[in-house]
TrEMBL record:
Main location: membrane
Compositionally biased residues, Polar residues: 115-130
Protein name, per record: Efflux transporter outer membrane subunit
Record region (Disordered): 108-130
Membrane topology: Lipid-anchor
Gene3D superfamilies from the UniProt entry: Outer membrane efflux proteins (OEP) (1.20.1600.10)
Matches recorded under InterPro entries: MdtP/NodT-like, OMP_efflux
Gene Ontology molecular function, alphabetical: efflux transmembrane transporter activity
Signal sequence bounds: 1-24
Statement: the UniProt record of this protein carries the keyword Nuclease: no
Amino acid sequence: MKRSLLAGAVVCCSALSLSGCVLGPDFTSPVPKLPERWGPVASEAGHSATVESAVDPRWWDRFADPQLSALVQEALDSSFDLQLAASWLEQSRALRRQIAADTVPTVEGDAGYSRSRNSQRGLTDPSGNSGKQAFNLWHGGLAISWEADLWGRVKRSVEAADASVQMAQEDRHGVQLLVIVQTAQDYIQLRGTQQALAVVQQNLQIARRSLELTRLQVKEGVATDLEVSEAAAQVSEIEARTAPLQQRIAQLINALSLLLAREPRALQQQLSVPADVPAYRADVPIGLPSELAQRRPDIRRADAQLHAATASVGMAQADFYPRITLSGSLGFQALQLSDLGSWGSRSFAFGPGLSVPLFEGGRLQGALQLQEGRQQEAGIAYQKTVLSAWHEVDDALVAYQANQRRRDSLQQAVMHSQHALDSVHQQYAQGTVDFLNVLTVQNTLLSNQAALVESTAQVSLSLVQVYGALGGGWQG
């Protein structure tokens, strides 16, 4: 009768565990609140416009700069940040395997030998010698235990662990995207700074020719020493602009070297030769807003975090209910090694164990409220992440168009300033204007040229920001 009751209990527990009475809310990914179309951004003729076609996962190749593409690929292969993210991902997977081990029985084996002697005044002596002499004791066996997951506590813990793995994976995707964006930004800034240095050096040559011309005019009696001093000061002022730019170039090359996990100045020879700022004038595919949640790693991570928090609520609810553990052991014990394994040396034990929380002083209720609060927090964080992503995309698109308009205006300003400088040089050579006019026009040209170079780089940088906001890149 007892055996039938025990067998029935085991079968019942197994059936309940397999059929699954899982407590807690089941997770469903929230539908992000996003517009059907991106907001309208004015695009002028000759500008790069945005189109709602699929986002290119290798968008950096659209700049048609082999150096940039090679640097991005090397950064993805070598970045220490990506190596760290991969290590964190493996750790989360290992933790998931550790948690998932609760779903299957644990089996342990043990074997041992001891030589001992008991007290003659003690209660028992398994050797039968009443503690008068030492004896050997050999033993070995197996022990098995398993918790019947009646309320889904273990299942919810594995579910939460899976979501944590997904969070780590999205963190890695986010690092991939960040490495791509940082590499592209540093490279574009490097080329922009090199172009700015070239502009300064070009103006320095003009200023030196003006100084020579002024000295000749002093000898001819049509200029004064004051004008020579002004021309010399202009040369020195322009020369002073080169050092900060050279410093910035060295720092950007080192920043790229660090992204590629290489030593300082490792890319000096490769990148020291100036090149044009990578530009992209074709239409920019930005996809649809509904695709943003599938591309942005931070949104995908927020979704996984909400999933983990939801599963943890079920774990906390299951702690209110009894736990049934099935355990058993089978082994052998003998005083002589030759007897170990014989039928008479066998030992066994089996049976279920039940633990019921009767009084916890509010601990379980507090744990449940804590998990419910974390679930609510994760839900709010998800909504904020989606809205922040929407803002980032909109701001990046506006900045991209605005920078293109600024660049076009500065191109016109440089053209007019160059024409003005040519005219004022002729007038100065003819003696119709003084050198102050030359200085003013040349400073205006230098300022406009520097602004144009900076604006050209900003157009490309803002396009990088567009793709970074769209979450493109890690998929490739």
